[in-house]
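Hello, quick one for you while I still have it in my head. No rush at all, and the record is pasted right below.
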Amino acid sequence: MKVAALVGLLAAMPVVLWQLWRFVAPGLYSNEKRFAIPFVLFSTFFFLAGALFSHYMVFPWAWRFFAGFSTDYMQFTPKIGPVFSLYVRMMLAMGVVFEMPTLVLFLARVGLVTPRFLIRNVKYAVLVIFIIAAVMTPGPDVVSQMLMAGPMFALYLFSILVAWIFQKRPSKEATEASQD
């Protein structure tokens, strides 16, 4: 049942994100509503990229860390329930973490985030990224923390680029009024 629920969530992600957009859209101006399809496409792509990254990179490293506790006197015998729960939690967490560029795109278009703000606060972002990575990773090992924090930092840098490309530009009227 849990596997079916996970696959169903991943398959239904475009519909879930579309419904989220439909919830937010009434509060936006008409020129901001044209980002509905890019929002759904980018959100789906980044969520699936995060889930795949968790499946192929983060979970295997974390699993090797836990399996490394086996010795001649102690055997590593995990139970499937907690392991699958950990797997799902890590996959969903990485899916959500990979949504950072989509969130920044939306916030930049609305005018709440600027590239200058993101660049100015890189040191705080690194601190928050490592705190989130420490909380979200299953063990105390540095490798799984770095496997989560590394992509988060890369996505933060990519988000700066996204904010620069999609930032809210001043209108012609506001530019002409400031020149008078």
Residues 2-169 form one domain. The chain has one domain: 2-169. The first helix runs from residue 2 to 24. DSSP finds nine helices and no strands in the chain.
